[in-house]
Amino acid sequence: MALWLARASSQLARRAAAATRGRFPHPPRHGGDTRPWFLGSAVPPPVMGSPAAAAAVGGYRGFCSVRHFTGKSSSAAAASDEELEDGFTDNNQVLDFPGGKVAFEARINFLPESQGERIKCYRVLDDDGQTISGSRFQEVSKEMARKMYSDMVTLQIMDTIFYEAQRQGRISFYLTSHGEEAINVASAAALSIDDLVLPQYREPGVLLWRGFTLQEFANQCFGNNMDYGKGRQMPIHYGSNRLNYFTVSSPIATQLPHAVGAAYSLKMDNKDACAITYFGDGGTSEGDFHAALNFAAVMEAPVIFFCRNNGWAISTPTSEQFRSDGIVVRGQAYGIRSIRIDGNDALAVYSAVHAAREMAISEGRPILVEALTYRVGHHSTSDDSTKYRPVDEIEHWRTARDPISRYRKWVQGNDWWSDAEESELRSRVRQELLRAIQVAERAHKPPVAELFTDVYDQIPSNLCEQEQLLRDTIMKHPADYPTDVPI
After folding, report:
1. What is the sign, positive or negative, of the torsion defined by CA atoms of 52, 58, 59, 61?
2. How far apart are CA 223 and CA 233, in angstroms?
3. Any coiled-coil ranges, and where (predicted)?
């Protein structure tokens, strides 16, 4: 420290003398102070009351504290000081700042608003279902490949039939995963059952892969007394404690900070597991997205952020949401390792999530995955997407870019699937689902009292009053309430 102070004092004294001799070509235009002002001057602050402080009166005025790299000899330091006096630069000095050393430069250099080239997209299968030459991916066994394809087809059929059931007035609401089946099933296949899933509302395929039955799906959509949510949630708001699948919540992006907290708890308990949370491109416009990424990066939580960038947040296109290169660049801004993948390529999705999970757990870090895909269906049964996007665009993605067709070509190319098996699968799933719907429709509804339970150990007086008020209202206006709900 004494040596540093001595050098600093000597340097400041030399600069003060140089300034008075007119070595710096900065004459005053209108009189006044002739000392140059440098933003981030490479001068350590002098100690008050020292000779350096007195010399600083005639020298530079700056406010960034810097120090030399260690290991420099006294002769090299002297040469560096002379260079500073003549050229006002010192590439051997850095600013010690939280997060790492920051080098100085003498030019005004703003970062560009975007990179010259967009971030590339990881892909394994081409549009014809052939592996791209030189592609690297996680191998899948015949058994897993067949199950992945079977579940993708099952999800497609389930979405179609439930959507028709809503149009018939048999359930109140539904939304599909058409065009995003690979994201659902392939990502789930790369996880462990011990991994915690915090979904949005377009990931029923993850539950399907984990063992949620078609009957359980039907029970939730019809809100009967076998529904785990006891009829208190909208359709498609699934949840399963048994399968480590957190119940879907309608507000956008609220599950992201929760996922970080859950992941950090896994880390504290030394669990060989991670958390994964799914969200759409629209969710990245919410504050919870930014809070969650920063939280995860700082706490080094083993969580996978999986973004389905399907181009549309209901009717808002990505071009009206943000100017950045999609979502993947945002991860890097928060200090999170990130990758962009083809979300319609089942092998790419599986391989990327498999690698992301391994890094998240072994290295204790968050990972961001941006999957480029397309929402072929309407946002929900409350939406008509033909009002805001071209029909031919939808048809192109439904046919030419369909993830199920592409993956089937690869599976059949390995002689792991046949047309006969395809026909049998589709017929069986359709019949099983129709039976499940019939059972769900005939089942009793949960009683009114269930609306007020499962929150407090002892129901507070205000909820008791609300329950009584509801009962009284139903008795006065029975025609306005469903007759199949027990009072």
Report:
1. positive
2. 8
3. none
> With bands split at pLDDT 50, 70 and 90, how would you rate the model's confidence at 93?
confident
**Residue of 288, 295, 289 whose CA lies nearest to 267:** 295
250 is catalytic: yes
Cα atoms in the 13 Å half-sphere on the side-chain side of 44: 20
For residue 114, what pLDDT band results from cuts at 50, 70 and 90? confident
- Give residue-wise pLDDT tens across range 209-248: 999 999 999 999 999 999 999 999 999 999 999 999 999 9
Q: Which of 65, 250, 362, 427 is catalytic?
A: 250
Q: What is the per-residue pLDDT for 487?
A: 86
Look-up: residue for tokens 């030394």? 270
The DSSP secondary structure of 219-255, one letter per residue, reads HHHHT-TTSTTTT-S-TT---BTTTTBPPP-SSTTTH
Using the CB atoms, write b or e for 294-321: b if 16+ within 10 Å: bbbbeebbbbbbbbbbbbbbeeeebeee
Q: How far is CA 391 from CA 156, 339, 375, 405, in A?
A: 20, 30, 13, 20
**Tokens 């990931």 belong to residue:** 203
Q: What is the pTM of this model?
A: 0.81
Confidence band, pLDDT 50/70/90 cuts, at residue 10: low
Separation of alpha carbons 247 and 242, rounded Å: 12
- Please, are residues 179 and 373 in contact by the beta-carbon 8 Å criterion? yes
Query: Residue 290 belongs to what H/E stretch?
Result: helix 287-299
The two three-digit tokens of residue 241, written as one number? 């404690």
End-to-end Cα, the chain, rounded Å: 81
pLDDT tens digit sequence for 430-481:
999 999 999 999 999 999 999 999 999 999 999 999 999 999 999 999 999 9
User: For the packed helices 403-413 and 181-189, what is the interaxial angle rounded to 10 degrees?
Assistant: 50
Per-domain residue ranges of the chain: 2-103, 142-442, 448-480
Of 68, 178, 237, 379, which is the active-site residue? 379
The count of other CB atoms within 10 Å of the CB of residue 4 is 11
**Catalytic-role residue among 26, 82, 114, 164:** 164
The answer to whether 396 is a known catalytic residue is no
Give catalytic status of residue 164 as yes or no.
yes
Pick from 207, 267, 128, 375: nearest CA to 216? 207
Is 380 considered catalytic here? yes
Q: Which of 380, 405, 432, 467 is catalytic?
A: 380
Pairwise CA distance, residues 463 & 393, whole Å: 50
| Mean pLDDT to the nearest integer, 57-69 | 41
For residue 56, the one-letter residue type is: A
| Of the candidates 259, 434, 280, 272, the residue with the CA atom closest to the CA atom of residue 370 | 280
Phi, psi of 46 (to 5 degrees): -75, 155
The pair of three-digit structure tokens given for residue 383, joined into one six-digit string: 């939406």
Do 372 and 121 meet the contact criterion of CB atoms below 8 Å apart? yes
